[in-house]
Amino acid sequence: MEVPLPVDPKPSTVAVWDMPTRLFHWSIVALVFTSWLSADQGYMRVHLWSGMSLLTLVLFRIGWGLAGSSTARFRDFLHRPRAIAGYLKDMAGGKKMLYAGHNPAGGLMVAVLLAVLLAQAASGLFSNDGLKFSGPLALLVSADMSDRLTRLHGIIFDIILILVWLHVVAVGFYLLVKGDNLVRPMITGKKKGASVPEGAIIVFAHPARALGVLTLSAAIAAWILF
What we know:
By secondary structure, this protein is an all-alpha fold. The chain has eight helices and two strands, in the order βαααααααβα. It has one domain (13-225): Up-down Bundle (Fumarate Reductase Cytochrome B subunit).
């Protein structure tokens, strides 16, 4: 006589992040570092290409936030201020809330980072190094305006560093205090089943769509550059 095996109501892991979203995340990390290092060492051509690559990826992420997989879409993780405040209050009270993708606070961080990175890339287009190098659109504005945007470019980078620091602190908090590893899912694409709401429906967009969005983003960046 066969004995039925107990059924686990939740799978051990659930796929939540698509490959394009994960590649975007880690590529941004690499490009921000490359942009900083190239500017610090005076390799302005490298800095230009790093900045244009950054612009391409930010444009891609905006497009992917509109047409990508369900967890990558803005409508999935952008919440009203009241909802964000409520999430933070519940979290401080020890309540555990489950989200397939970004939680409300994480979604806000994504939106802010995208806005700041876009501003950084845009200001860099009009900047100059005070010597021989100028951004591809620097000639469209006066020398004084280019200098102002160059200073703004530096200020925005300081803001990026602050946001990166806050992001790292938040990831560490979730890992050490909440026992929730946010890094592993952004590498593997999978969360523990117990960390995903029961009945969550996650729809993944076809990779061809990501390629189309990336091609369009690269075309826009190339049009600006050339």
